[in-house]
Structures are given as structure tokens and as C-alpha cells.
Amino acid sequence: MSNSLRDQLMKSGLVDEKQARQADKEKRAQRKKAKGKGGRKGQPADPDAAARQAQVQQARAEKAERDRTLNQQREQQKKEKSAAAQIEDLLREHAISTRDGSIPFHFTRDGKVRKLEVTAEQQKRLSRGELAIVERKGRFHVVPSDVVPRLHERDATLFVAMVTAADLSSEDDDLYREFPIPDDLDW
């Protein structure tokens, strides 16, 4: 009763043994071919698989680019935070106190004349270019001029008021030599 179609065809004489083996061979080849195309046993191959695979690859590439950009931003933020901490440390370590200052020292910031109360010694050193004034977070700090390059390495946008060698040149002195400044002049 459970005779297969093949067995029934062979008994009736419509198909001989050789033809039955050939049919089995072709059937196995078709199954193997269907499996090789990505289909499962009895299922046809998926024609959209290549398109989906390309979309997956593109999505992975976009995600990798987003991750790379995000990591670069995080690294930049870490560098900026580290530089800010180093600047704070340098200012804390090298800043000279102006609490006892009673002599005004004038300098310009953004086209405005600013005033900082310093001691007589600090005024002399500021005028000779040995000290500099650095602004950080709205406060002015007096630091030695050799600290300024290290501060600019960390943040090039820091405001620095410092007398340079060009400011100390004697060209202007020659022009005004015949007009002496009175000793009792107070700015």
C-alpha cells in the first residue's frame, strides 16, 4: 500500500530501473542547486538577498563612521578638559599674589584700558617684561613671562598682556628725549 510512485511506475512497466535512477539523480541535482543558491530544502532562492546584504553593509559602514566621529569628539573633549586642568595648575603654581598691591598698572584689553593694582616691585618687573598678565575665567593673574609659552601651548586663545623687547626699544625714547616726563606725574 505504501508503494511510492516510482515503484508503481516500475511495476506497471511504464518506467524501467535505468530511467528511475536517472530521475532520482536529476531530483538530487535540483535540490543541491537550490541549496547552493541560498534556499532551503524545498524553498526557492531569495532574489532580494543581495540587496539586503548591501543595505546591511552600508548600515554597518555608516555606524562605524558615526562611532569614529563620536570617538574623535570625545577625544577632543578630553584634550580640552586636560588642557584646562593643566592651565589651572600652572596658574595656581606660578601666579604671583597682587593682594598687597596699591600701585595701578594699566594695560589694554579689547580696546579698553584696564587697571590692576600691583606692588612697586611687580610694576617694575611688568614694565621690564619679566612678568605678564594672563586672563582666565574673567580674572587677571600675574605670572612670570617664562610661563606664558607653556600656557599658550595649552590654549592659544588666552589673553596675555606682556611687555616685549619691541616695546622696550629706544626708538620712541629718541623722539621724546627733549620732552622729559615729570617725576610727580601720576596716571
From TrEMBL:
Compositional bias (Low complexity): 42-59
Top-rank taxon: Bacteria
Residue ranges, annotated region (Disordered): 1-84
Composition skew (Basic and acidic residues), residue ranges: 14-27, 60-82
Basic residues bias (residue ranges): 28-40
Record InterPro entries: DUF2058 (IPR018636)
Matches recorded under Pfam families: DUF2058 (PF09831)
Protein's recorded name: Nucleoprotein/polynucleotide-associated enzyme
Species per Swiss-Prot/TrEMBL record: Aquisalimonas asiatica
